[in-house]
Design goal:
InterPro entries: ETF_a/b_N, ETF_a/FixB, ETF_asu_C. This protein is α/β, with parallel strands linked by helices and 317 residues long. The chain is 28% helix and 24% strand.
Length: 317
Amino acid sequence: MANALVFIDNPGAALKKSSLELLTLARKLGETAVAINGELTDDVAATLGAYGVATIYQPSVEDLDDYLVAPKAGYLAAAVAASGATAVLIENSPEGKEIAGRLGIKLNAGVITDVVGLDADGTAHKSVLAGSYNTTAKATTPVSVFSVKANIVETEPAGAATAPTTAKVEVPADAAANAARISSRTEKPASGRPDLSEARIVVAGGRGVDGDFGPLEELADALGAAVGASRAATDAGWIGHDAQVGQTGVTVSPQLYISAGISGAIQQKAGMQTSKVIVAINKDAESPVFEIADFGIIGDLFKVVPQATAEIKKRKG
């Protein structure tokens, strides 16, 4: 019987860093099982073994991606029953948090979101009130569901690799009965940059970029970083909404967060305040972002950012 069940949705050819973090955390709780949605390649199975996974569960149907999150929650509930897990770990993405909430209802389980740390006894550490406080929480229910932020733990394989067994989980017949079906998909153009939610470095721009993200994109490429934005910038149409960092956007916890031309209102802070190091660039010395910045530069981003990019390229060269 597993102690922890990790949900990995469409792992692809190789597991993402955020998935490896979930596996690293899950081992603290004991024996680990994984519920996969999507194709399980030999390389992914080998990686799961390297991280100490005992059992890999797969759904009995292959059309879970034809719907929104409801059937995935039904599948996970069945996987919990099959594995006997007392803890479920899910990515802290918007979809992940919705799955966690639906799973909590199905299992009558306590749900803890925005987790930034997890102890062996199931005590979760989380960031609350726009990152102003860190708190601890522990569910009193037989099963606990955690949605975990990325970049909170160094990934670490198990001391001894396992040879995971695979098992099919019967997805409840009514799991998709009232679920919204996805009618079409449009593939997102590849930028070559890391995914925003799990990037180790993020370069973000706001109203101060005045529609020109070019200098920030050049800096991001020099650093191997993802590009983020404030809501003001995405609402203005200067960059896609998938780049929005904040209370109503993506929550990030990178090693380095560079904020350029962003005032640092509470909604923005909620999405990035747990970053390890925050560098702020703004012409307004009274901007709230300087209250949380580790390093502040008062100046024109269109002068500061290109200089930083040139110096980074020079040192890399």
